[in-house]
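Same chain as my last thread, 192 residues:
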Amino acid sequence: MRRKGLALSKGGPMDTVTVDLGKRGGRIDVAGVRDPATGQRFAPDPGFDHNPSAAWSLDVELARRVATIRSPEIRAQTWQALNNSSARKTAWLETVDSVLASRGQDVRRAGHDGFVLGFVDDEIADFARRMAPTKDPVRVVAMSEQGLLHADTGKHLDEGIALTRDQYAMLPNVVAAPDEVYWDSDHPKNRS
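reply #2:
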C-alpha cells in the first residue's frame, strides 16, 4: 500500500448484495459493501460472506465445558441430554428437508455452514485419543451443507446410494449411540 501511495481506510457499512450464480443457476443474497467513492458494490463469492464456524462454535464451546464436568455419570447424562434434544433434531430435519427439496441442483451453490449432528461421549473421545495421541477430540460431530448436498447428488441418486429422508433423520441417533466406531486411516481430513 505504501509503494502505491494508498491509505488505509475503514470500509463502509455492510449491506445485502444479490449475486448471479451464472451457469450454476439462480441468484443468492450475500453480505457485501458499496465503495463510497465509486458507488461500486463488492461482494464475496457465495459461502464466503460469513464465518462458517459461527454456526457451530457455541456447540464446540459447550462440548469443551461438558468435558470438564468431574463426575463421569453427570457428564454421560449431559451428553445424552444434548444428543436427545428435540430442538436439535427438529433443526436437523428442517435442514434435511431443505436439501431434499433442492435435489438435482448444483452442489457448488452450497454454503459451508456446519450442522451439528451430535456430541460424542467419553468412550468415543478416549478411542480418538488412542488413535491420535497428539490431538484433543472436540467431541462435536458436524456436517457441512456442502457435504450434505454432495451426499445427495444426482450421481448418488442414480446409483441408488443417496440416503432417504428417514436415513438422514437417523444420523443424530447414530452419532449419539453408534453400533461401531471406526478410524479412517486413509482420509485424515475426515477426522479433523
